[in-house]
Design brief:
This is Glycolipid-binding domain-containing protein. It comes from Streptomyces californicus. The protein is mostly beta strands and 210 residues long. It contains 1 helix and 15 strands; from the N terminus they run E-E-E-E-E-E-E-E-E-H-E-E-E-E-E-E. A 15-stranded mixed beta sheet has the order 8-7-6-5-4-3-2-1-15-14-13-12-11-10-9, covered by helices on one side. Strand 12 and strand 13 form a beta hairpin. The longest helix is centred in the middle third of the chain and has 11 residues.
Length: 210
């Protein structure tokens, strides 16, 4: 069960935004990721609880940030309920999308487990619903993912496969690179792996999901 800590930074000026303490693990029905986020001063900011089925689809998502809450799942695309800090107002949403996204590294790993790309796969288009901090506002976006390189690195626990993905935002054309080993993000825009207690779990097997 990988367990560790990410540091989060502003994408534009690299200002520290805090840390995300996480653990994740594959299971008989898929994969689960649980984390707590803290501010640079150590105050609690929110949490992530994401569970995927064996095809990489989100069967349960629960987000908390600034007293806002989102619960979601894959249902006729993706469906969610967003609740305000008072708990008195809840709004439902549904989009014909493939997955959820957000600032947590969990969503990057989840996308790779859904797409299951190989270096021979063509660039694959995916529609995601992103929940933006700090109020978890939903935004639909189209992305293109391609696995451009996969290398084995020697470690004390055997070879570690590091995958390099190129991710493109189709609305702006902006591209960035994501490095992932199994179910742990090594580096991505705004994300750095600071500490890892146990090795990553292996990459999800199988062919790309529809």
């Amino acid at each position: 069960m990988p367990r560790g800590r990410y540091s989060l930074h502003d994408l534009h000026d690299h200002t520290p935004l805090g840390e995300e303490h996480f653990h994740c693990a594959p299971g008989p029905s898929g994969w689960r990721y649980v984390s707590q986020t803290t501010s640079p001063s150590g105050d609690h900011l929110g949490s992530v609880d994401l569970a995927l089925d064996d095809l990489g689809r989100p069967i349960r998502l629960e987000l908390h940030a600034a007293s806002w809450q989102v619960r979601g799942a894959a249902l006729e695309g993706v469906t969610w309920v967003r609740t305000d800090p008072t708990g008195s107002h809840a709004t439902e949403g549904n989009v014909r999308a493939h997955a959820f996204a957000g600032t947590s590294p969990a969503f990057l790993v989840a996308t790779t487990r859904l797409l299951r790309l190989t270096p021979d796969s063509p660039a694959t288009r995916i529609r995601v619903v992103t929940f933006t901090d700090p109020v978890l506002a939903p935004r639909t976006a189209d992305q293109s993912w391609a696995l451009v390189n996969s290398e084995a690195h020697a470690t004390d626990n055997g070879p570690l496969i590091v995958d390099e993905y190129q991710v493109s935002a189709l609305d702006t054309g902006e591209r960035h690179t994501v490095h992932i080993a199994g179910d742990v993000v090594l580096a991505a825009p705004g994300i750095e792996l600071e500490h890892l207690e146990t090795p990553p779990s292996p990459r999800a097997p199988g062919t790309p999901a529809d």
